[in-house]
Design brief:
Blueprint (H helix, E strand, L loop, with lengths): L4 H6 L1 H4 L2 H14 L7 E2 L7 H5 L7 E5 L24 H14 L10 H4 L3 E5 L4 E2 L11 H15 L4 E5 H7 L9 E5 L4 H4 L9 H11 L8
Parallel strand pairs: 2-3, 2-5, 5-6
Antiparallel strand pairs: 1-4
């Protein structure tokens, strides 16, 4: 469960906190095959969001909640699934909004590593989950850790776009410094929220790119 080197130095004080040591003990126990449990994502991908988007390269942050809890789905990036896995409904709606907003065709798979490699930090609030048990690793310390990640980005960087979809993400981002960053909020892309008119038409993807461009930063190829 190693994390990318620059992130490691940025978050060193968190790793030394008692809560984080307890969290890692819990996660190791949950992932121990001798305990008969299956957890997601695979342990080498728990910190995949950080590995793909080193601290220096982060330009956009998208906040999710839990990893997917079905077989072969979670790959360590929020909303993302591995190739050859059916695209989940929320991600289908994300792709539809991108198509309508920036004219990009809907892709054939749901692997968002291509975003992460451009500096889109795809951060779940909780980085692990037990198979078939959504929320099973909540309130064990991950939320404290990911709050610290968001605060570090807000404090140490400028001109980052935060995309906060749904009430949970908006609460998670309540301490972002809006004088230094662009914070865009809308309903969640899940079918229930989207079908109530709270998602489609938010134009977050074109707004994010316009903001990045205005600050001399490369746009994201969504």
């Amino acid at each position: 469960m190693e994390i990318e080197q620059r992130w490691k130095s940025e978050l060193q004080t968190e790793f030394e906190q008692p809560y984080f040591r307890q969290l890692i003990e819990f996660v190791r126990s949950e992932y121990d095959v001798k305990n008969g449990k299956i957890c997601y994502p695979p342990s080498p991908k728990i910190f995949a969001a950080f590995d793909h988007s080193p601290f220096d390269k982060v330009k956009v942050v998208i906040i999710g909640q839990d990893p997917y809890h079905g077989p072969n789905q979670a790959n360590g990036l929020c909303f993302s699934v591995a190739e050859n896995v059916p695209v989940p409904p929320s991600l289908v709606n994300i792709f539809k909004e991108i198509r309508d907003d920036v004219g990009k065709p809907i892709p054939s798979d749901g692997n968002l590593e291509r975003w992460a490699d451009q500096g889109v930090l795809l951060l779940n609030a909780t980085l692990t989950v037990r198979k078939g048990e959504p929320g099973s690793h909540q309130k064990k310390g991950w939320e404290t850790f990911t709050d610290a990640v968001i605060k570090r980005i807000s404090d140490e960087k400028s001109n980052v776009v935060f995309l906060l979809w749904g009430n949970y993400a908006q609460q998670k981002g309540k301490n972002i410094d809006m004088a230094k960053h662009l914070v865009l909020k809308s309903g969640h892309p899940s079918p229930m929220s989207a079908n109530q008119g709270k998602w489609f038409g938010n134009r977050h993807f074109s707004q994010a790119n316009a903001y990045l461009k205005s600050n001399g930063l490369p746009e994201i190829d969504w």
